[in-house]
Amino acid sequence: MTGAKLGAIVMAALLIMYVALLANTGILLLQDSNAIAKLMGALILVFPVFGFALVIAELRFGLRIEKLYARAESEGALPVFDIERRPSGRPMPGQADAVFDKYREQAQLHPDDWHSWLNLGLAYDLAADRRRARAAMRKAISLASANKADSL
Question: 133 and 121 in contact (C-beta within 8 Å)?
Fold first, then answer.
């Protein structure tokens, strides 16, 4: 089991414990005669639902990316980032940018190919641009799902 999976499982377990504790507090507040306490109790019961939904969405995203990554790996379509790295594993300054340009151009040339978007997402991740990495990976998931549906 990878560290990321273990971290996700631990976070989900902590969220479940947190929701259980909050639910108890919310129920106690709902039983109070004060209107403000009742309102707080209702909000305490509602907000964790949103948190739980976000955790589920993140877990689904992670599982989809993991499957797509494995699929690309089995096809031999993963990029090889042959760059100089710091002892921490992060790329040396300027190294990620040079690699990134190559994969951005590839995604522009092949906008309907999920491989190019996955590789672009990995290049964004290498460049520590998490927001764009996730967007590119969502696009890869969407394209891979569409291609899978077309082939049925």
Answer: yes
